[in-house]
Structures are given as C-alpha cells and as structure tokens.
Amino acid sequence: MYVAVKGGEAAITAAHELLARERRGDPSLPEISADQIREQLALAVNRVMCEGSLYDGDLAAQAIKQARGDLIEAIFLLRAYRATLPRLGYAAPVDTGAMRLRRRISATYKDLPGGQLLGPTFDYTHRLLDPSPPAAAPAAQRRPAAPAGEPVPQVTQLLDREGLIEANAGADGDGVGDLTRTPLAFPAGRDLRLQALARADEGFLLGLAYSTQRGYGRTHPFAAEIRMGEVEVEFVPEELGFAVPLGQITLTECEMVNQFQGSATQPPQFTRGYGLAFGHAERKAMAMALLDRALRSEELGQERTAPAQDPEFVLAHCDNVQATGFVEHLKLPHYVDFQAELALLRQLRAEWLAARGGDRQAAPASASDGAAQ
Amino acid sequence: MTGGISYNFAYLDEQSKRSIRRAILKAVAIPGYQVPFPSREMPMPYGWGTGGVQVTASILGPHDVLKVIDQGADDTTNAVSIRQFFARTAGVRTTTDTGAASIIQTRHRLPEAPLAEGQIVVYQVPIPEPLRFLEPRESETRQMHALEDYGLMHVKLYEDIARHGHIATAYAYPVMVEDRYLMDPSPTPKFDNPKMHMSPALQLFGAGREQRIYALPPYTRVVSLDFDDHPFARTRFEKPCALCGARDSYLDEVIIDDAGGRMFVCSDTDYCEGRRAQAAAAGGAP
Amino acid sequence: MLQPAFDDPVRQSQAVFRLALRAMAAPGTIVACEGCPTPPMPLLAPAAALALTLCDFETPVWLDGPLAQNPDVASFLRFHTGARLVPSPAQALFGLVADSARLPALASFAQGTSDYPDRSTTLLVQVERLEARGWRLEGPGLRRLARLWAAPLPAAFVAELGANRAQFPRGVDIFLTTYRSIAALPRSLRVAEAA
Q1: Beta partners for A269?
Q2: Do the Cβ atoms of A366 and B236 come within 8 Å?
Q3: B254: closest CA among B246, A166, B243?
Q4: Domains of chain C, CATH where assigned
Q5: ipTM of this model?
Q6: Most B CBs within 10 Å: which of C111, C188, C189, C190, as the mutation test of the B interface?
C-alpha cells in the first residue's frame, strides 16, 4: 500500500549534518583557518570580495571556508551578508592616480614616468607544478610598503594631454546610478554597466573578452596600464561637509586603449575601456576593460554583431549568483509540470498513432483535455 | 556569520520591505503588469523562491498564519525550508491547513480548496515575462506590453495548432488579465488557470532573480488564451486519486515498481489528507 | 517641535501596509486605520501613517499649500522618512493633499510611462467625509458594484477619474483618508456619478 512520502524536514537536517562532516574532511589533518585562507589564498579571497561586492578579507576568507572552497558559493554567502548591512552612503570617487603602487605595467610604452614595476606577478613564472614546499620568506619581509613618493599619473593622462584619447565623460546631472537599488533596465548607462561588470563572473567575462580578440566584435585593444596598490577611501558626511578617511583598500585598475574613432566634429582619437577590481585581480580587470569597450560599440557608431557587444545579453547573464541559482534550481522538484507535459505528450502520441491506423502500441493517456470549461 | 547577528522581523530590512510594498501597491493597481523592484540577495539561492520569499516577508505580520507549499505539498524539501525560514525569522504561526492560512506561499500549484476573501496567495515565479521565450530582450517585450502588441504569442499558439492539433503548452499557460495585460501565471499546470479567474483571494507574484512583482486583485478577470475553434480545455484525469478518490484534483504520477506500475495521487497533500480524514470520520472508504 | 512617529515602526508600518493593501485590492472599501501617530497639523493620523509606511529617501514627495505652509510637516516627513520634498506635482511619487476641495488636476501629477506605468504618483488626499454610498465603482477587486462618496472634492473629480482610467495603464492611484479611515481608488477602477 503506497503511503505518501513524508520526512522532508528530517532529510534536510541529516543533509546538513553530513555536509558539516564533509566540510571538515579527514579529522586527523589540521583544520584550515580563515586567517590562513586570507593570507595564503589571497587571490581566491580577492575574487570573492570583488564578485561578492564587499571589501572584507576576513569575511571573504570565512565564506570560502564555509563554502568548502566553492568560490561562487562563497560569493553568494558574502552577497547575502552584504544585503543585511545598513547603507550609510556613497564614498567619494577613489583617486587611483594617487595609488601607492605595488605593481604597474604598460604595454604601450617601453618606458615611462614612474617606470615599469613588476610587483608580485605570475607573469614570468614557469608553470612547473612544484610539490616541494616553497622556500620560506624571512618573517620580516612580509609585504614591502610601496615607497611613499609622488603619485604616478596614468598613461591615459599622457595621451590625453596630446588630445589622442577621448575624454572621460563626467557624471551627468542625474549622478551615478546604483545597481543594487534599481533593477537593471535597458538601455543601461555606462555607470550601471560598469557596476554590473565589476561584480560579474570572471569566467563569463573572460570568455566574452577572449571572443572579442578573435573577431567577435574586435576592439583593437592595447593595455595602456595595469596598476595595483592601495588607495584611500573617503566619505563626505553631509553634516560635516568635508572628507573623512575610512581606510585603505587594494585595487587593480586596467585601462585599455582601443580602436580610434573620429567624427565630423571630432578628430580621430583612441577610445577607452576601463576595468577595476578589488584586491589583486588582473584577469578580471582586463576582461572587464575589454568588455566595457565592446559594450560601447553602438554608442561609438559601430555595428553590433557579436555577443560581447550586446549589453542585454552580457549584463543579464553575467551575475553568477543569479546564474547558478537558476541553473541549479532545476534540481528542485518539477514533477507537477512534468506530469502536465507527460499528459500532453501521451495525448499527442495517441492522436498521432490513431491518425495513422492505430495498430501500434501506445501507452494509454493518463489525462486529456476534457470538454471546454 | 550566523553567530551574534540579529535579523529584522522576517529577515528583510525595513527599507527593502518599503520598496517591495510600494511595488505591490502599484502591481495591484495595474493587474497583470510586471512592476520592477530592487530584489535583494536572500539566504536562499535565486531560483529557490527568493521573489516569493521577499513578497511574503514584506506583507507578513505577527497575526498571520502561513502555509508554504511546493508542487502542492507542504512536505517537499523547499517548502519545509521556507516555512522554517519564516518560523525562525518571524516567529509566525505556520499551518498545512489551506482554510486556516491567511498567507499561502506556493510554487507551481494552487490549492484545490476554494480560497476565501482575506486570503493572500504568493506565487514563486522563475520567468515572469510570458513572451520571454519568444523574444529574449526585455527592451522589446516591455514595449510589446506598452503597445498591447501580443502578436508573437498568437502566432506561437497558432503554429502549435498547425503542427500538433493542440496548443502545446501544459503549464505556465498564458492568460489575459482584464483584457489588457498578457500574463504568465507562473509554472502552475494549466489545470489551475481557471481558479485564478475571479478568485476571492488576492494573488501576488514575486520573481526575485528577474526582479519583478505582479498581482491579481480579488475578482479580476483572468482568461486563458485560446482560439474560437480551439477553446481552452481543462485537463481531466482518467482516474480518481488512489488514496482519497477525488475526481476533481490535480494528480501526481507515482511509480510504484520496477515494471513501471504507477498510481495517481492528489498533488495537494492537505486536500487529500482532509478528504481521507473526513471519510474515516464518516466511517467508510470514499 | 518634532512630532514622534511610530512607537514600533516595524510592527506598525506592516499593519498600516496591510490596511493599504486591503483598501487598494478592494477599491472603495472604507478601512479603519487606527494606532496612528499624532502628526503635525493639518496632517492627520491615517495620511501620516501611510506616508511613514510608504515614503523614504527614494520617493520624492509633493505637499499642497496648507501642508507646505507648516514647516513642522516638512520637518516631520524629512526626519522620519528621509523623503525629498519637490516643488512640482509631476516630480512626485507621493502627493499629500490636505485641502481636498482644491485638489490639483490629476493630470498635473506624474502619470507613469507606457513602458513603466508604475512610475506614477500615489495621492494621499485628506477628505472630511468618506461614505459607502453615491458614486458607482466597478472593476478589478470588486465582485459587484460598490459605492463610495467623498467630500469635499473638486466638481470635476469623477470626470477626472474617468480621464485617468481612459489612459490605463498610465495614471495615478489615490488613497482618500479621513481622521480615522482610508479608502483607495486604483487607476484600474471605473467610477461614475451616482445614477
């Protein structure tokens, strides 16, 4: 005798206990700490902060631990936490020109004011998987502070002085939009597009950016500058009327110089692509800069032919928390709708067979459309 | 991240509730129209009902009695999870009894028992836009609604008939609301569409990931699309529920052995249990 | 002196919202609105409660003459809701009116756009009398004909409601409030003079 299945609640509790055990792994091994993750898996932490839209290395590290290393799950944890935080206001725009540089390179000039500073990069390492423990760095040499010197101006400013690159449009009278306050509507302004790209999935942006380099919406990019280091974050409380420093964050900024463009009223100039990411995150900043430029195609009078140039396509699908939610939701029960499809299919098959003689076996229809209501 | 953090009543902060409440009021004033709202990340993933949860969290009060169902059943894992969420964050009374609930949050079904004035149904909606799979661009579909240009949908239905002899849509069957807006009733089977028409209850629809809220006030005209020569037909099941004998409820197919033997039971577990309890009290099999 | 708002904002705003929802979902129904704060005159408790519940820094608010004249009203709203006050009805998402006899033309408020009809003004209009008789109300939310009458209102009010309805889905939505109750007229409603 069939008894309706019960026990959903008990099943969930048991699943959570099992998850906790799996998360710990082999108990004879030391438990990993969030501090270790923050320090030694810093690039994972950076990605989680960037796509979680919350600059907090400790929380991001905890999220990675809680998520068992699944970075999108960690990003989701951080976003959900962020949604509970009270909003105080908007910081003043950070001045990346005043960044204390720890890395700064330009592909457009052999040498330039401020020089090429390699910093901590994988770029010229040989990718030889090395199971032997790395040589321990002397304890004192943890993170050399960037020499506090004169701020180094961006390469694009040098081009700007000669009028070779388009000016950056300032914010218009409406101010800057806030993606977290208003649902994205199309056409979306560049401010909202950049916000969406900043929190977008690195893999999705990487694939699309790659596509532009292979002909799917070519933008002729040159990496004018990639810089990484610390900037000051400031807030101007209305009651005080002056800027209050809140602290420093690490940013990676990428400025691409792209295909030149002219018009009847303007001589040809290079065009821009911009990327910005929390922490040290070059792949993200570069992919973002390539896509920023690709999404400006229509604005710059180019024909839109490729997915990377399609704002609605890119922006509607770049948020990995949304994407994973919807893809994975297919695991939830859908048997009611499936039953409706089964019934329809069985009916259509029965009719198809009946129309062709009806001597082949068909499963009896379980349901059918009855007389009109 | 959970220790030491206290959350607001029903989890959402008041500012989020206010934006959602404003959206709900506009939705009720414009039946069937999708109102954009700033969806928040919730503790459950997009796709798990965050839109429904945000709507419920914004309307819920300490005196409400909440029922949560998924596929018509109170005990499916996600319904359990959502019910626990509200029990924990709102301390609200929960129930499996449709008649006793003031708010019913649901995924993919409407209860079989007729609803009453004062009840509110909150539907979880994955894709709020009925034209989405015919036109992926929001910029286009929003204009279609503005111009009441639903030709794409009519063509699709006509092509179904030409190809299959039937409109080949079994669930999320599109409806016209008050002769103006084309609406997606959420992935309820078309069997449930007639219940939405002129319902005494208020019906609210929340899509978290897509960031839309829409509504059917009570006693609103909701008409399933069809053609004169292919009128909308209610689904009828060949057999009654194997457990309670109901002939008028939506049935789940349950595979009972390796040979593919199957039986059909009410998808609405509360309805089925109620009928069985009544029959037992009356002292006989249905 | 700043008037206090809700004692228990979380609970009270939820309760007031449910009253507003009931009113909007069953147009013309006169809903008792109790437990409201004591706002600065001429703002009355139910309209103040609706403003406290629905307005915030994202909703520009327009005040009519009598309300704008008392600076306490503006302070009350700004302090408790953070709402920005705007000089023109067309810029407002909420319009508060104490002198209902001189209610501005409905067309002077934000009407929404055909793509986004929701971006229109919600009016909170304080009237002296609200009674379940008179005008004929039909439309979504109503199983059968309902009746409502409110005063004082401009002579052209019902005709303006007709024009509002004629441009559906655009249009304004209206809460009528007294010193202790509210009723709602969504734009979807068809209102005719008493036969």
Answers
A1: A261
A2: no
A3: B243
A4: 9-189 (3.40.50.11310)
A5: 0.98
A6: C188
